[in-house]
Amino acid sequence: ELKDNTIIIVLGASGDLAKKKTYPALFNLFRQGFLPRDVKIVGYARTKMDEAEYHKRTTAYIKNPDEDADVASKIEEFKKLTTYVAGDYEDGAAFNKLTEHMEEIESHYQHKECNRLFYLALPPSVFTTVCKNLKEHCYSSKGGINRVIIEKPFGKDLESCRELLSSVKEYWTEDETFRIDHYLGKEMVKNLLVFRFANVSIGSLWDKNSISNVQITFKEPFGTEGRGGYFDEFGIIRDILQNHLLQVLSILTMERPVSFSAEDIRDEKVKVLRAIPPIEQSDTLLGQYVAANGKPGYLDDESVPRNSTCPTFAATTLWIHNPRWEGVPFILKAGKALNEAKVEVRIQFKDVTQGIFKDISRNELVIRLQPSEAIYLKLNAKTPGLYTRAVPTEMDLTYKRRFTDAKIPEAYEALILDALKGDHSNFVRHDELDVAWKIFTPILHWIEGQNGARPRPVNYPYGTRGPKELDAFVEKYGFRRNPGD
Ligand code: BG6
């Protein structure tokens, strides 16, 4: 449940993440009455600015396309909840100023208990210092809760992740720490548990006996424009596969948890991830986009080092060694500067036994995370008429059509609300990170030339489906393009 007397402190309040995601999510929660009564929001960052400038920045991404008067007045109310303190991240005295500011707010609360939720919208270079300073200077000792929300990158490999986690742990307990992978807040990802475990018909198809191969695909139609310098240090595997797509994979493949409690769910996720060995080089295809269709190539970005071999596209196949999944390839694919924006899971079933039907389409179950959430099942049916011929058709659950009035929450709204309630189910536990890095670290070290020359990714033109080698890559793992697809 939500606690009264809560302050939400956004550190990095003048940065991009806060502006684009955190404040709009806080506003939407506020507008719908989901924030605690008496809530106050305090921004903290290095930039010196007055309240007007701060409010301008924090509301810049709040959408009100129809200029709705109700929304406009809610924005004004929201502004009144939010204040700003400028200060350094290294300086203990500056954090004392933040505490004075919070105590002044808290002095107006009716009862003593004070709750503080710290949201770190900050670059990794200051994570640890800020965690330390918050604990030493801003931790409330008045009997309320203290929680800290942090977000990737959680290190760059197994070793650096372990270092980061253990330094944060010196100050904040696991129970107080909420590690965001924002894919876990997406509506369709949250639906996976219900879809899998509340449907007996789906549950019984969910294994190597029925399934031939699975693809989890992330496509973005823009390049690293403006973020090239940051991206080059990380690459597409750390940006998308190791976290977002692996999270989807674990929920898709885990055994049924004993309950919906955070620990039961995360125990099952860790268990299935532990059955995945490190990725092999031979199971990996790397790509980098080049200029095309009037758009610049990755290496044309001035913030990217010349000759960078950083992959902006990767396809890689994971194997799960347990009785349910032995032998089923799970292909994770992600790329920037492709031909469309889409994130989906595509489960391709095996062929029907040959005999009466030949050359018919395989069944496929597609779970589209975005855009336009949908689940559809491709089935064969008899064409209507006086003869018997099978044609591919679809059973289609498109959210927009089925749930016409529903407003699908943004991932960050769902996650901030969970953190306020203290529910860890959709946050990443330390051992999930550990095992995720075990799977990806060797391939990343190979890509970064730690054991020899760096492999050169293959080129693909901006705005296309990806490297031309991709079709052969997925076919190698048994994926068969159905006629007409
Ligand atoms: C972030 C990545 O984690 O996820 C970005 O760092 C990427 O590179 C983003 O664009 C995608 O998120 P979404 O919610 O738009 O799919």
UniProtKB/TrEMBL annotation:
Q: Which UniProt keywords apply?
A: Carbohydrate metabolism, Glucose metabolism, NADP, Oxidoreductase
Query: For this protein, what reaction is catalysed?
Result: D-glucose 6-phosphate + NADP(+) = 6-phospho-D-glucono-1,5-lactone + NADPH + H(+)
Task: Specify the Glucose-6-phosphate dehydrogenase NAD-binding domain's residue ranges.
Answer: 9-191
Task: Kindly tell me the pathway this chain contributes to.
Answer: Carbohydrate degradation; pentose phosphate pathway; D-ribulose 5-phosphate from D-glucose 6-phosphate (oxidative stage): step 1/3
Residues forming the Glucose-6-phosphate dehydrogenase C-terminal domain are 193-478
Q: Per the record, what is one GO cellular component?
A: cytosol
- InterPro entries attached to this UniProt entry: G6P_DH (IPR001282), G6P_DH_AS (IPR019796), G6P_DH_C (IPR022675), G6P_DH_NAD-bd (IPR022674), NAD(P)-bd_dom_sf (IPR036291)
Provide one Gene Ontology biological process annotation.
Answer: pentose-phosphate shunt, oxidative branch
Q: Does the keyword Metal-binding apply?
A: no
Q: What is its EC number?
A: 1.1.1.49
Q: Which GO terms describe its molecular function?
A: glucose-6-phosphate dehydrogenase activity; NADP binding
Relate the protein's function as given in its record.
Answer: Catalyzes the rate-limiting step of the oxidative pentose-phosphate pathway, which represents a route for the dissimilation of carbohydrates besides glycolysis.
Q: Which HAMAP family match?
A: G6PD (MF_00966)
Family, similarity comment: Belongs to the glucose-6-phosphate dehydrogenase family.
Protein known as:
Glucose-6-phosphate 1-dehydrogenase
